[in-house]
Amino acid sequence: MGTSSNTTFAIKENKLLSILLAPRLYLMLIGFVLFLAFWHFAVDVWKLPRFSQMPGLIPVLKEWTNPDPIYGLSLYTAEYYTHIVASCIRVFLAFTLATVLGVPLGLFMGWSIKVREYVFPVFEMLRPIPILAWVPLAIIMFTGLETPVIFLAFLASFFVTTLNTMLGVDSIDESYFRAAQCLGANDRQVFTNIVIPGAMPFIFTGLQISVGVCWFSLVAAEMVSGQYGLGYVINNSYTNVRYPTIIIGMVTLGFVGYSTSAMVRMVGNRLMQWRMREIAMSNN
């Protein structure tokens, strides 16, 4: 038992060291430092005309970390976390619904010519319509305040997920299908063992894009019809001339959006590793 725990600890320690010693981490930190330095110099030092109305880095940080914020929103206020939770719940529901509906539809559109002929023209006609153009219909079709916001976030995410899944099926080499037919595989076996695993890389790439699209669609929806959420914070702060709070909402949105994309990426990497191990075991 002791040897096993020591081995596990050594593996974790090696992983931590590899992360700390990787140049990617330091390059990322340098990128953030350069961005913050440009912001500070452009607004507070050089006072560039285009940045004259923007809040500087230091005032925003002071407001963000102030236990008694001037504009009422900081790391120490409960309202700040209420907005974050509200947006996260909406994104989770919209993204989950888009994944549950978009992935199967994309798989069938890529696999079946008849399904693509029926669905794809309508899909391509609706896809270019901006999310804000759907706002009046969303308010008419759905009651309450939450459902229209979730629907608008779902819509953009759904189109991205479906299209990337369909392209994933299209990317599969035809030789796999011919080999399966020669071996006597039926349609269900082809779909399960070739179509789904073959499209998996495109599916998870699409899901990473989809969750980002879901976030900025959600912000647009919250600006129009939301009462809580980061989009509401940004729009309400602009209306009430609370410019530091706008930046706080935007930066928070960036952090939360990046975290959700990273989580989707981690899940995709885990599932792809599991699939690769399964294929390797089946070949042995």
Helix-strand layout with pairing:
Elements: H1 2-21, H2 23-45, H3 57-64, H4 78-111, H5 113-126, H6 135-141, H7 146-170, H8 174-182, H9 187-225, H10 230-239, H11 243-283
Helix pairs in contact: 3-11, 4-5, 4-7, 4-9, 4-10, 6-7, 7-9, 9-10, 9-11, 10-11
Could you list the spans in which at least 5 consecutive residues all have pLDDT below 50?
none
| DSSP strand count | 0
Q: What is the level-2 CATH architecture name of the largest domain? A: Orthogonal Bundle
CATH topology of the largest domain: MetI-like fold
- Radius of gyration, in Å, reads 24 Å
Share of β-strand residues = under 5%
How many domains?
Answer: 2
Give the topology string: H per helix, E per strand. HHHHHHHHHHH
CATH homologous superfamily placement of the largest domain: MetI-like
| Average pLDDT score | 84
- What form results from the Cα inertia axes? globular
Helicity level? over 70%
CA-CA gap between termini: 31 Å
CATH class of the largest domain: Mainly Alpha
If you had to describe this structure to a student in words, what would you say it looks like?
This protein has 284 residues and is an all-alpha fold. It folds into two domains: 2-54, no CATH class; 78-283, MetI-like fold (Orthogonal Bundle). Helix content is 81%, strand content 0%. It is built from eleven helices and no strands. The radius of gyration is 24 Å and the shape is globular. The relative contact order is 0.11.
